[in-house]
Amino acid sequence: MLDSDDFAAIRLTFELATVTTLLLLLLGTPLAWWLARTRSRWRGPVGAVVALPLVLPPTVLGFYLLITMGPDGPIGHLTQSLGLGLLPFTFPGLVVASFLYSLPFVVQPIQNAFEAMGERPLEMAATLRASPLDAFFTVAIPLAKPGFWTAAILGFAHTVGEFGVVLMMGGNIPGVTRVVSVQIYSRVEAMEYIQAHWLAGGMVFFSFFVLLALQIFRRDRR
Fold first, then answer.
1. CA 55 to CA 200: how far, in whole Å?
2. 40 with 115: CB under 8 angstroms?
3. In 3D, which of 30, 51, 22 has the Cα closest to residue 156?
4. What radius of gyration, in Å, describes the C-alpha atoms of the chain?
5. Could you tell me the pLDDT band of residue 218, with boundaries at 50, 70 and 90?
6. Do 36 and 114 meet the contact criterion of CB atoms below 8 Å apart?
7. Phi, psi of 40 (to 5 degrees)
8. pLDDT digits (tens, 9 = 90+) for 15-34
9. What's the domain range around 14?
10. CA dihedral sign of residues 170, 172, 175, 179
11. From residue 136, how far is each of 25, 126, 142, 150 by CA, in Å?
């Protein structure tokens, strides 16, 4: 059965996924809008950087984040000079790593929804003297709502299932950085297979129901 350490890891995992998903929706939306609308030559490189976590091993991303945010890295120097300390092996550090690693799972569905919307709704809004900002909030956002739901579900689920990047960036500190995936690893390493089965089985069911909900949502939209 699960003990207090397991429940602490579950609680921390869902806190991390919630905070990360909210930040991804807040900061990823303007990025998705820019990628969907711009004709800049930077669209390709920026889109490739956003999609990089899809093909990059998570340990590679975690390694470079650890170097960059460590005591000798540029971001580490900045956070220390601001009195914030170092981000590695802290909950805010996990949020940063999870944000970057789950970025394409949120940006791409929203970008696709904006692109599928086309130009006509915005042109109609312009003829009614709506400002670009008004048109964005009253026309583009409502029309892209399915993309936002898909992005939120995928971003949350992907953050829950992270392992390599959170282990590299956060380590294995109980109650601070030990999420469910790391807790499963710890249980297996200690040969505590019964507890590992409970946690791993829970992750399987969670992943299945998330994907099932996504399929039902897409079917209903069609």
1. 24
2. no
3. 22
4. 20
5. confident
6. yes
7. -65, 150
8. 999 999 999 999 999 999 99
9. 4-221
10. positive
11. 15, 11, 9, 19
- Please identify which residue in the block is written with the tokens 């350490």: 5
What DSSP letter does each residue of 46-107 carry, written as one string? HHHHHHGGGTS-HHHHHHHHHHHHSTTSHHHHHHHHTT----TTSHHHHHHHHHHHHHHHHH
Element (H, E) at 157: helix 145-160
**C-alpha to C-alpha distance for 185 and 170, rounded to whole angstroms:** 14
Task: Residue 64: give its domain's CATH number.
Answer: 1.10.3720.10
Q: Which amino acid is at 144?
A: A
- State the CB neighbour count (10 A cutoff) for residue 83: 6
Secondary element (H or E) of residue 216: helix 193-221
Domains held by the chain: number: 1
Residues 157, 151 contacting (CB under 8 angstroms) = no
Reported as a single tens digit per residue, the pLDDT across 108-167 is 999 999 999 888 888 888 888 888 888 899 899 999 998 999 999 999 999 999 999 999
Sign of the dihedral defined by the CA atoms of residues 37, 40, 42, 43, in that order = positive
What does the alpha-carbon distance between residue 186 and residue 198 come to, in Å, rounded to a whole number? 13
Q: In angstroms, rounded to a whole number, what is the distance separating the alpha carbons of residues 66 and 193?
A: 31
